[in-house]
Amino acid sequence: MPSPLLLVTSLPAAEEAAWREALGAAMPGERIASVSDGAPVGAAEIAIVANPPLGSLAGLPNLRWIQSLWAGVDRLVLDDTLPDVPVRRLIDPTLARAMAEAVAAAVLHLHRDFPLYAAQQRAGTWRQHPVRPAGERRVTILGLGEMGRAAADLLRALGFPVRGWSRSGTAHGTIPVASGPDGFAQSLATADILVNLLPLTPDTRGILKTDAFRQLPPGAALVNFGRGAHVVEDDLLAALATGALGHAILDVFPEEPLPPDHRLWTHPAITILPHVAAPTQMASAAALVAEAVAEFRRTGRAPAGIDRTRGY
Ligand code: NDP
Ligand code: OXD
Question: Which of 50, 210, 228, 277 could cross-link to 9 by cystine, CB 3.0-4.6 Å?
């Protein structure tokens, strides 16, 4: 009898139950246990996690690897008690496609001045503004990983000049990809729309601050689909007040849900989305986890995890 798969989440009970069902359907031969079951979780070799409570994975003597149900593992790796075993994040082409769609929707919304027309509607104003061709609206994507590459390809197909910035500067087709501080400066200076798809790590926390906003073309727009803590909120508000930034579309926040009385909700130059850019799809995530579990059962080898010193 294989060891049980330990499911650890801080999700609402109904959502956790839906995950158990999806994972159970994808792996009919496996037992899925959680701490609350009273099952012998100490035997677990694999933990499948979604925002596990801090400390909840400590002291599992047989644990061989941790599988996240989210693409971003920033919260997970912040847990000092996390056992020293591979942490595998979710890499799902379905998610990358959803992210590309969300980025395209946000960029088109900004490009075609929808925030301006929404403000005009509130004022009952009928005024047409010139339409700029997509080829004249430069987009920079910070982070050219699974999400960034899919977004870059779709924007390119829509006719936008796209460039990327990443740690390694690894080329992606014909899309120029810069790296390092000089590359960052150059990427900002040519961004009419700046899209953030970086992971949150010690190097990227607070990267979107006054110094960065000042380097953008005046009135540029920001799309933050990475993590809330990439943005220094006071600096964002200051940049919107001076016109350094024209508009921001934010999907992620340091505290989620964004508290009802938060000042960002009513800012006229901010569009708020409730972390919906690319939500994990249960069925495809469960199928991908099932493949990795089957491979582990076959070979006894834990899959490769993220680089915990880099943080992603
Ligand atoms: P990947 O790990 O595939 O890609 C990360 C990219 O960021 C890589 O290009 C990497 O560079 C680059 N990067 C990392 N650190 C740095 C740095 N210090 N300087 C410059 N570039 C850096 O991640 P994904 O594309 O799968 O996901 C990115 C993030 O998107 C997730 O971590 C998560 O926070 C967020 N996300 C948000 C969702 C939402 O619904 N809003 C849904 C899913 C993810 P290199 O290529 O050199 O490694
Ligand atoms: C993720 C997310 O990281 O939804 O998967 O943000």
Answer: 50
Measured CA to CA, the distance from residue 2 to residue 276 in angstroms comes to: 36
- Is 5-92+280-299 a domain of CATH 3.40.50.720? yes
Q: Report the 3 state secondary structure along 207-254.
A: CECHHHHHHCCCCEEEEECCCHHHECHHHHHHHHHHCCEEEEEECCCC
Q: Show me where the domains of the chain are located.
A: 5-92+280-299, 93-272
Distance 226 CA to ligand 2 centre (A): 8
The pLDDT, as a whole number, for residue 192 is: 98
In terms of pTM, does the model score above 0.90?
yes
What's the chain's length in residues? 312
pLDDT digits (tens, 9 = 90+) for 117-149: 999 999 999 999 999 999 999 999 999 999 999
Structure tokens that stand for 144 in this block: 């050219």
On the question of pLDDT at 281 being above 80, the answer is yes
User: Minimum-distance ligand to the CA of 252?
Assistant: 1
* Cβ < 6 A, ligand 2 pocket: 70-72, 279-280
| CATH code of domain 93-272 | 3.40.50.720
Cα–Cα dist 268/115, whole Å: 9
How many whole angstroms separate alpha carbon 152 and alpha carbon 270?
23
Q: What integer pLDDT is reported at residue 205 of this predicted model?
A: 98
The residue contributing the CA closest to ligand 1 atom 5 is 145
Q: Which residues line ligand 1 (CB under 6 A)?
A: 71-72, 95, 99, 143-148, 165-168, 170, 197-201, 203-204, 225-227, 251-252, 275, 277-279, 312
- How many Å lie between the centroid of ligand 2 and the Cα of residue 31? 26
Q: What is the CA radius of gyration of the chain?
A: 21
Residues 6+ apart with CB under 8 A from 35: 6, 8, 41, 56
